[in-house]
Design brief:
372 residues, alpha/beta, two-stranded antiparallel sheet, 16 helices, 15% strand
């Protein structure tokens, strides 16, 4: 194994430096390793770094099961409120997030061409200002910048507006550079020398944003999405470890941890040489439950790594849906008896959960949910 050295005066809580020191300690002085592991001088070392070891090995399988588009849909809907607050704080102040409901199954078909188009994320939510109003927030995720994006955003707006009879706030998220960060873009049409259409939508170019500006925020979503942003920190191993540690220490359930950690692992890609260094750094025993009781690995093991990744994903997502419905019930109707909450958590039919979520939109009282 290659020997590593940290600069004099380096921060002892630096995860990369701490990990290198621990690796060398285990190599050269195995008898001191167990004693050192129990000392609190490097508390961050015990966070979610294990995700890099097993997460990288499972990434392709995980992505194949979930699908690229579905992962982004789940991330944005699951973290809808923090997403809006992070990138559009001026909009967040006008929305009642306790009323937010995911609008699913909106598929538009062209006739006679028969093309099927499905918007990525559509959320129905109440406004908090002015006259009572329900609006739609449409969020589209684009892996690359294409010339037809402005037209497609206008097209989705028109179709949703006509079908739902609700006003629509359009947003596009770009995963490729070139947007300029947080900007407004538009689609327009002219005829006979006059501007007859001027459609404006919000654009969020993640690669054009500064990672440092978001990793400092006390918000797990910001930490996760910083993996797609440009950074002055050239050491990608350090960036990845820091992100995983932050997620490992966040107060998230299994489903949310899975989604955010996957984004970091997929988009903060290491070279073969960096992977080799990562493997060297992590060659010491990371399986001891006495030494690693917190962080991502603990969450992932509970979610089902050892029992099968497919079952873990399904259980994590199902648990997340239950949690969201319970949270919305409490926000809308206040704290409820434990018996009612247990009844919701015991629902094992996905269609019943979807029906309950739809009833929450129009329910005036808790009895309207039909849980009694």
């Amino acid at each position: 194994m290659v020997a590593f050295a940290c600069k004099a005066g380096a921060n002892t809580l630096d995860p990369l430096c701490a990990l290198k020191k621990q690796s060398c300690l285990l190599r050269d002085h195995p008898e001191r390793a167990s004693a050192s592991a129990s000392k609190p001088q490097c508390p961050k070392l015990r966070m979610g770094i294990m995700s890099v070891v097993r997460g990288r090995e499972k990434r392709l399988r995980f992505g194949a099961i979930m699908g690229h588009d579905q992962i982004w849909k789940d991330v944005i809907w699951t973290f809808f409120e923090p997403f809006i607050r992070l990138f559009l704080p001026q909009v967040a102040g006008h929305l009642d997030f306790s009323t937010a409901q995911l609008v699913e199954g909106e598929v538009f078909t062209d006739v006679p061409e028969g093309r099927r188009r499905e918007p990525d994320v559509v959320v129905q939510v109440n406004r908090t200002d002015g006259e009572p109003e329900i609006i739609l927030v449409h969020i589209e995720v684009q892996s690359e910048r294409r010339e037809d994006v402005p037209y497609r955003m206008w097209e989705y707006y028109s179709l949703l507006r006509l079908r739902k009879k609700l006003r629509v706030y359009p947003i596009v998220v770009f995963l490729a550079p070139g947007t300029g960060g947080l900007v407004s873009e538009s689609y327009g049409e002219e005829m006979f020398g006059k501007r007859i259409l001027d459609f404006v939508y919000e654009a969020i170019g993640l690669p054009d944003l500064s990672a440092e500006a978001y990793t400092e925020r006390d918000e797990p979503l910001a930490v996760s999405l910083s993996a797609l942003m440009h950074s002055a920190e050239g050491n990608r191993i350090k960036r990845k470890l820091q992100a995983m540690q932050r997620l490992g220490s966040a107060n998230l359930d299994d489903a949310r941890t899975w989604l955010l950690a996957y984004v970091v692992d997929k988009y903060l890609v290491l070279t073969e040489e960096e992977n080799e260094e990562m493997n060297q750094l992590m060659s010491f025993d990371l399986e001891s439950p006495e030494r690693f009781k917190i962080g991502l690995m603990n969450s992932w093991e509970k979610a089902g790594w050892d029992r099968g990744i497919e079952q873990g994903i399904e259980r994590g997502i199902e648990r997340g849906k239950h949690d969201l419905i319970v949270r919305q019930i409490r926000r809308k109707f206040g704290e409820q008896p434990t018996q009612l909450i247990d009844q919701v958590m015991a629902i094992d039919d996905d269609s019943r959960l979807d029906d309950l979520a739809e009833r929450l939109i129009t329910a005036a009282t808790i009895d309207d949910l039909g849980l009694a």
